[in-house]
Amino acid sequence: MQQGSFKGELKSRIDEAALHLFAERGVDATPVPMIAERAGVAVGSLYRYYANKNELVARLYTENYARLAGELDRIQAPEPSTRRKIAAMVRFICEFFDREWDLARFLLLEQHVRLKTYRGAANPVDIVRDVLADGMRRGEVRSRDGMVATALVMGPVIQAATFLTYGRISGPLSNAADEIAHGIWAAIVRQRD
Known about the structure:
By secondary structure, the chain is mainly alpha-helical. 73% of the residues lie in helices and 0% in strands.
């Protein structure tokens, strides 16, 4: 194994261990030695990649939140209507929770701390807001404040994910994706006179 790929693999193990522990215990309740132990590395190895735990948390949040925005944009782009764009994004987020449980819970649980200072170029909120603004221009979505409309779309998805996180919804979240998307559409569709 080459030195570079070993370092990459080691960093990946640290990131994966940190995500699991942050999602399971919370950031504040996860000390650095616990992350190192879970990753199977010495504490000093962790500090070769990150100056401290806050840097680790910030990087994991920023990179993955931006990646999520990119994926949402990619998923919605080919869809021909606002309704189909929203359904595709809801389905993607539900499947994301099913597929990447630790990462999704980490992003969900850490958002209240990290979104205050997030300055990344890609942002899921902006993707949803832009889709809705386009839907308003095309007359598919009821005209209203863009952030209120965005909250009407994101709220049901985030709350369902929160319920899943705390055991109030069981089974794969993707099983509820169509129902969530249908409810969202009912809340934002432009009513014809």
